[in-house]
Amino acid sequence: MLQFITNESTKYSIAEEVQMAIEGGCRWIQLRMKDATDEEVRETALELIPMCKETDTFLIIDDRVDVVADLKVSGVHLGKEDMDPLQAREILGPHAIIGITANTAADIIKYKGKDIDYAGVGPFRFTTTKKNLAPQLGLDGYRKIVEEVRQAGMDLPIVAIGGITLEDVDALRETGVNGIAMSGAIINAPDPMLYTSQVMEKLLGIPHD
To answer: In this structure, what DSSP letter does residue 63 have?
Structure first.
């Protein structure tokens, strides 16, 4: 699976970014607007909701649990400094997707038996779209984390994130991760829609028109 994470760009609006990712076959969007107000996030989400509904695309919002609850989008992604995911579950109910950010196996294992849906694990390599980066993991880092988490008896989906490009997809899949997240590689591609479709092809083995 591919998660597309929005990022401010001089070339496209966030709605344009999402439209191109969806047209390329991506069905999982994370709206991330770290420096925006709740109202700005809400207004942007309202632009994205119709295109996501029309294509059965999951729309999750980074951090803003109240906005997620108000707009009833698919769910929320929570960083380490954001709301506790168990508190978010109480607010959003049983059907919301709740993802967490993790940098180590221990970050994930501490939620064993708790009701979360996936862990975004990274960074794979240096990325300019995220501030305050944790140490880069590389392929070996993912192999070790996946192995430790599975040995702990958790089958929680692990999504690799951080500076990932099309060329990395095959090697990352071999580490045992369940999905990848991309932002800058798609936004900065000459043709974001084509690039997304090429990523989807590698992930699924299914060509997209």
So the answer is: S
Cα-based distances in Å from 49 to 2, 9, 41, 102, 124: 18, 20, 12, 27, 30
Residue 81 amino acid letter: E
Residue 96 contacts residue 76 (beta carbons within 8 Å): yes
**Helix, coil or strand: residue 118:** strand
Contact 29, 57 (CB under 8 A): yes
C-alpha pair distances (Å), 11 with each of 57, 172, 191: 23, 29, 12
Question: How much of the chain is helix, strand and coil, in % rounded to 5?
Answer: 40, 15, 45
Could you tell me the pLDDT band of residue 130, with boundaries at 50, 70 and 90?
low
Which residue in 2, 17, 48 sits closest to 159, CA to CA?
2
Q: What is the pTM of this model?
A: 0.94
Phi and psi at 124, nearest 5°, equal -65, -50
Residue corresponding to tokens 């809400």: 42
8 Å CB contact between 174 and 142: no
